[in-house]
Structures are given as C-alpha cells and as structure tokens.
Amino acid sequence: MKAVQFDAFGDADVLGVAEVPAPHAGPGQVRIAVKAASVNPIDWKVRRGYMEQVYPTPLPAVIGSDAAGVVDEVGEGVEGFAVGDEVFGAGSAATAEFAVLDHFAVKPAGLPFAEAAGYPGVTETVVRVFRLLDVKDGQTIVVNGAAGGVGAAAVQFAVARGATVIGTASEGNHEYLRSLGAVPTTYGAGLVDRVRALAPQGVDVALDTAGQGAVADLIELTGVPANVVSIADFAAPKLGARVTTGADERGFESLGQAAALFEDGRFTLPVARTFTFDQAAEAHRESEAGHVRGKLVILNG
Question: Packing angle between helix 191-198 and helix 215-222, nearest 10 degrees?
C-alpha cells in the first residue's frame, strides 16, 4: 500500500510516498481504508526527532496518528463495529491507504471524513486537560491560543459544560471565536488587564495552547499555579503550572463526546486546507509555521 513515510529525522523534505506492507487489526483494534488523515503538531515534532525521549520512533516510519475512514478489518474482542462502518479515531501510521486504529468511534453520517479526521488528537487533549483542571458548569476559563485546533475544541467543550470562555487570538480570528461561544481578546502584553476587564468575577482555570510566554499571566489571573495547564510551554512547571503530554492518562472518551456534540450542532472544527499524499511535506511546513485556523488534512485519493 502507499503511505507517507520518512527514513531520517529532519525537515519536511524527508517525507515521501512509499510502498509499505499493509497493517492488520490486532485485538481491540480496527483497520480502516483511510479517507483522510489529519496533521497535528506532534507529527512534525516526531518527524524532526524532538520526541525521541517520549515516543521512540524506529525508522523508516509512516507519519500520522489521526484518521477517518471505512472499517475493513475488525480485531478480536471488538464489539459493536463491523466491516463497512464509517469511523474516526487514533492509532499509528495513519497517513496511508490503510491504518489501524486503537481508539475509535462511529462517524456521524453528516460529518465529512476530512473534518472527522481532525477530531481525535485535539479533542483527546482537551478532555485530558479538562480532567486535570476539573472544568465545570459556572466556571470561567481562559484559553490562550483559542483559534487553533486544540483551542477551538477547548472553547466548544467548555461551553458545552456550561463554562464561560475567554479566548485569546489575533483580531482577525475574533469573530470566529465569537461564533464558537467565546469572548475574544488579543494575546501579548496587557493580557491580565484585558481579561480582568472582561471577567470582573475572576478566572477559575486556564489552558495555554500557544507556548508563547503567557503562563505567568495565566497564573496571575487564576491566582493558583495548579489552575493552569499548558500543552506547549515546557518551562511552565518552573512557575508551578502543569504541562500535559500524551504520556499522561489519555482522554479518548472525547471521540464519542465530539460525535454527540456534532450531532447536536454544538461542535465543529473547520478544515483549513486539504492536501494529497504527494503534498504531505507542504502540509507539514504549514503546520510548523503555525497560525492555522482549524485543521490541515491529507486526503487519500
């Protein structure tokens, strides 16, 4: 089968399309004929070799973890799924004609494959962070970097829990944040004063998705370092805040939650741009550049 693979760590140019053996579903897994696979920041960090201490990657390696497609093999012990089901989920080596998923959910009929492929990683991250922060009804949460994939998912999941959300983004993304249910403001110098003007009742918890030095301000806003979690600023623990990675307890119950919210009209993640397998390097370069609203998705076929 065809897959997007890299033989050495490096910049996006190490990616290429190769013929590789097709995987098969093991116990608790399904194999899908991939329709779409999303690009997450973790993908290019793995490709560059930045994650070797956390996720050792034998080379050559097929890139990607999140995909949507049609089940064509069901592993031992899997119940409630059958060949022909349309699903989305997370696994490994996902940017390929066939991929094995470890965590998966039925794709709602009205949800396009390209959009569904963008759900797993970002929603799992949000559920994991919200578990750490105990986000609940009546709270006020600040999401720093709210227009990206994780940020936009966090806004919508928080609103669904009954929280008030203040989201930071560039001014060009403020109307987008309003459409998701957040109160927008800009990031950078003066953040504490701007947020306090918007939330005179105070801020309970905060999520940093941007990693651009906002953690100290978020701690000042929440008053307690433990009420701030970052997924991008690995210096945050020096200030007493927490960092969460995929090495922590995962939150893949997010898949069913995202599907249900989508069906209720309360969750969506825009597809910023789609690519072919041959354009995978371009997709990675765009992801590394940042400032993407929504998800970058690689289509099979």
Answer: 40
